[in-house]
């Protein structure tokens, strides 16, 4: 599968002599050295790719460079160095006019603070991108109404933004992005201004829409739980650099460094991990013919705990042909729920506490 969006060695430097600053960064200089000279390195050597139909989440603390990185993906901010390719086209070489055309038809943004026009109806706000494209009124209103319905706002088309709750206003912003039928959605902290319950509802809405629409999405957040819930893949940023890219399970189970590990400490792992992530694979795969309760690699962690509670031996994990691909001893489950980073290694063989060999038929 070819990538829909690719960023290669992106740098964004603000201040004097940015080109010279990039050279210094490549030679090993850090942010603090540049800051002492009055130069700010917002993004440093960022590379990643996003597959079609995937949600790629960029997360990090305030000031990590994630929003600056997002603005380079649609040309709102020109990279100091590096390239951005969308469907194989290098955006960094496009003219201003070509970039405006791209943003109006192929790349849409959903902002943190709704960015609705208070003097326009909900329908007209949702149709705004289409109006910029010059789509005739009847067509753009029909497409706006369809997008609003997808976002759960059917019946609110003639309302004004100040008549809507914060969550509903954010749905209008999402509908505006969907109405243009853009290939790429860029979402900059889009749910962070919402109350926790409304925020979770918007996450549910996005995941439900994604099942049908299968948009390519880059989602910016500072909340790891949100990143884990939404992202097919996640990039963690620190001080302008991407320090780790991977699935939610990769980041939870194999953090690249202590900084990433500190983020995962308070994550509800039962909502993220699967049997495939926690199982011990040092097993023989020829003894899976049995009637005992088993798991598959996709079994959720919570379901895995329930199965383990009903068994007196480690849970056998089987593949599509009932071959034994791994086992999960109970103490391994406890280890993954704990905070101590070495816990998963506490059980390093497919044997129970008494030392007996475990098979699917045990």
Automatic annotation (TrEMBL):
Pfam families noted in UniProt: ABC_tran (PF00005)
Domain spans labelled ABC transporter: 5-264
Single GO biological process annotation from the record: response to osmotic stress
Keyword Transport carried by entry: yes
SMART domains recorded: AAA
GO molecular function, one term: ATP hydrolysis activity
Superkingdom of origin organism: Bacteria
Keyword annotations from UniProtKB, A to Z: ATP-binding, CBS domain, Nucleotide-binding, Transport
Region spans: Disordered: 339-362
GO cellular component: membrane
Family: Belongs to the ABC transporter superfamily.
Protein name stated in the entry: Glycine/betaine ABC transporter ATP-binding protein
Species of the source: Streptomyces brasiliensis
């Amino acid at each position: 599968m070819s990538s829909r969006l690719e960023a290669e060695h992106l740098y964004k430097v603000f201040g004097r002599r940015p080109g010279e600053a990039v050279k210094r960064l490549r030679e090993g200089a850090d942010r603090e050295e540049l800051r002492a000279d009055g130069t700010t390195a917002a993004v440093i050597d960022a590379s990643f790719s996003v597959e079609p139909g995937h949600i790629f989440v960029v997360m990090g603390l305030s000031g990590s460079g994630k929003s600056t990185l997002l603005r380079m993906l649609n040309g709102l901010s020109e990279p100091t160095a590096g390239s951005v390719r969308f469907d194989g086209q290098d955006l960094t070489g496009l003219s201003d006019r070509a970039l405006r055309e791209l943003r109006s038809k192929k790349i849409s943004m959903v902002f943190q603070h709704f960015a609705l026009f208070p003097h326009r109806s909900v329908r007209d706000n949702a149709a705004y991108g289409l109006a910029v494209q010059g789509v005739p009124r009847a067509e753009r209103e029909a497409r706006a109404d369809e997008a609003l319905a997808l976002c759960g706002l059917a019946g609110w088309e003639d309302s004004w933004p100040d008549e809507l709750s914060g969550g509903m206003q954010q749905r209008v912003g999402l509908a505006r992005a969907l109405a243009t039928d853009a290939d790429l959605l860029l979402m900059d902290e889009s749910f962070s201004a919402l109350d926790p319950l409304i925020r979770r509802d918007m996450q549910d809405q996005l995941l439900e829409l994604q099942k049908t629409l299968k948009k390519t999405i880059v989602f910016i957040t500072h909340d790891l739980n949100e990143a884990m819930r939404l992202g097919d893949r996640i990039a963690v940023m620190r001080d302008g650099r991407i320090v780790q890219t991977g699935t939610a399970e990769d980041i939870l189970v194999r953090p690249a460094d202590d900084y990433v590990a500190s983020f995962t400490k308070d994550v509800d792992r039962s909502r993220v991990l699967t049997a495939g992530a926690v199982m011990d694979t040092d097993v023989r795969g020829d003894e899976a013919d049995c009637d005992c309760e088993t798991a598959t690699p996709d079994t959720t962690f919570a379901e895995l705990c329930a199965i383990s509670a009903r068994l007196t031996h480690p849970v056998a994990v089987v593949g599509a042909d009932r071959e034994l691909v791994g086992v999960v001893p109970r103490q391994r489950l406890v280890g993954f729920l704990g905070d101590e980073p070495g816990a998963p290694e506490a059980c390093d063989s497919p044997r129970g506490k008494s030392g007996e060999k475990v098979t699917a038929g045990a």
